[in-house]
Amino acid sequence: MTATETQPRLLDASFASDNVAGVSPEILQALSQVNVDAALPYGADPVTAQLRDVIKETFGARAEILPVFNGTGANVVALQALLPRWGAAICSAQAHVNNDEGAAPERLGGVKLLPRPTAAGKLTPVDVHAELKALGFVHAAQPLAVTLTQSTELGTVYTAQEIAEVAEATHAHGLGVHLDGARISNAAAALGCSLGEITAEAGVDVLSLGGTKNGAMAAEAVVVINPDRVAGTDFIQKFSMQLASKQRFVSAQLLELFGTDLWRRNATQANDQAAKLGAALAEIPGVTLSRPTEVNATFPEVPTKIADAIRDRYLVHVWDTAASGNPVLRIMCSFQTTDAQIQELVDVARRA
């Protein structure tokens, strides 16, 4: 047996996540352009100053941005700033912050999460009211914030009205609203709206603004939209190890994304490719879509033999088991997904 034969075969990761994609050429160029001369550290550079202006134009005159390294860091910083030490955050049970961040909000931020079971990954005012029973009860963590995920882990999207309804119910009882926007660009592109319409205009107080899943190399941010509800974010950013010394290189990525229409172009491409893939798979006998393809993830319910064939070639996740007993796969596209890649996966499924 040769050394090659003993090594595990690498699966094609093209559809595993939008994190597998590379970096937008525009962002690489932006990084190159700021990689000249000296610049003050920790956000005192001219690139970050330009980014602050763009953020105010997008999210309102009082909005402030704090660039960070990753989405988990953004969520941990934002939730700490939104909550007192005795506070807890209501979230969907399927939320990334609840399942996929290594308990970072609780371990590092000291933020208790209050997960609610949801049918489509989306919280409603009913969920908020259900958790308010603990308000004032000294033996319980106090529900003092709501955290929404846009788009959700189930590939669903909150409309501006749905966010506004949750925010209204939340604010009526003095709670704050956080939005985990790791894929907010995909949601806004799907809705055909601006970023501000599903955040500031809908009542969101603080936003985790995603860039990495949509073409950035490594750039996310905390955007404080309502400073009356959020305090000490800059100090929290520092002690949470999310303050970059050479911040111009993080800011340059966000400036290129959100200071132009690159965020929308990339997200639209990813969404369109997922819709194309889902539609093509649904034409195969025995394959159905478990839910409509709203953003850049499609969830086909497939016979086991087709699932095995796909997973023998591709790194994709079994997301659920349908009532039929068939697996439901999560297949994701990015701004780099090509028509040829889609056709190859569909051909694999057809031959099974």
From TrEMBL:
Alphabetical UniProt keywords: Pyridoxal phosphate
Domain spans labelled Aromatic amino acid beta-eliminating lyase/threonine aldolase: 15-299
Biological process annotations from GO: amino acid metabolic process
Gene3D superfamilies named in the record: Aspartate Aminotransferase, domain 1, Type I PLP-dependent aspartate aminotransferase-like (Major domain)
Protein name, per record: L-threonine aldolase
Family: Belongs to the threonine aldolase family.
Pfam family, one: Beta_elim_lyase
Presence of the UniProt keyword Nucleus in the record: no
GO MF entries: lyase activity
Organism: Nesterenkonia sandarakina
UniProt cofactor(s): pyridoxal 5'-phosphate
